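User: I'm writing a short report section on ligand binding and want a predicted complex to refer to. Could you take this sequence and magnesium ion and write out the structure as tokens? A short remark afterwards would be nice.
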Amino acid sequence: MMDNDRMTKGGFSEGESAPQHQNQYDTKLLTPTKENLLIAAREIKSGRLVGMPTETVYGLAANALDEDAVASIFKVKGRPADNPLIAHICCMDQLNLLARDIPQLAYRLAERFWPGPFTMVLDRCSGANSFLTGGLDTVAVRMPAHEVALALITQCNTPLAAPSANPSGRPSPTTAEHVYNDLYGQIGYILDGGGCDVGVESTVVRVYADRVELLRPGAVTVSEIQSVTKGRKVMVAKGVTTAVEDEVCLSPGLRYKHYSPKAKVVLLEGGYGDFCRYVAKRAVNSDSRIGVMLFDDDERVLDLPYVTYGGQTDVREQAKRLFSSLRALDSLDVDTVYARFYKDDELGLAVYNRLIRAAGFEVVTL
Ligand code: TXA
Ligand code: MG
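Assistant: Sure. The structure tokens for the complex follow:
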């Protein structure tokens, strides 16, 4: 059996250090053994929070049915109260604790995509408290595919509310170390399930009796959803690829600035030759320190600090490495980062959706 606390403060690679907070806890990373799952479940049953691996990103988990516990998630993340959370379930029975009048179409989608990176927004029932739902009449529910997440929910015997385990506005965590660095001192335990397979958060859809609307793109793509809706077109919510105003919008999360590294990020749309010419000009003419975010296969033409995040058309790899690459930008010590991007209608849409938020919607066409 492995140690309960194999890593405590100070065990991180160069450039990474635990942030300074009023430390209430000496946060421990737990290997997901049976004993440690019991420790994590006990923590959650006592109304406290635990860092939990999922196949998409790490979540900050609490008992979804415990209002005070859910409220403390908002406090730790610094999250606006009107941005609701996703409840994570381990079996279909738990769906009935949260939602009512569930359309047949939702069951068909669940059969196809659960467990997996797919979240359905449904009409809420009284079990879904208003902290969880951000005061809306709907509730977001997902059955994750990660075995540690499923084991923890099963052990707790209650749905778990779990937003991404990052302070609001910062890139989502895809390793236990990311969570540790972001939330050291604020939570007691993080279950370490290794690196996340998918790397971007789940697809979020609003499901009606006869149609589906995409609120956030993820690894389950529009064409896959359409294979279940039998050709009926999936509508894409305003805000998925463009900025939305402060108006009431179907998915509150779309309104907020997100995923921001310390440097300003600008996306450049065009070929690599044009990219290099544009950036080289600015590197000479500007006082600001410039870095670049490239594809693995881009030749290193520019003599500037850089990170890479996957091959040019390898969107799976891009999704997997996106958030850790955005985090790595912080150690480049630059003011502005020009980024390459690739966009398609499948997983590339999910990567683009995160990148334009990291860039505050600043896209320059070359
Ligand atoms: O992959 C994921 O979904 C990760 C892991 C931990 O499961 N969780 C996650 O949670 O990304 P969070 O809180 O970072 O994002 C939840 C998104 C937000 O954009 C929120 O606005 C939206 O889901 N959402 C939640 N409840 C909603 C509702 N009732 N109606 C519309 N959108 C909702
Ligand atoms: Mg998030």
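A remark for your report: The first helix runs from residue 34 to 45. The CA atoms of residues 56 and 201 lie 5 Å apart.
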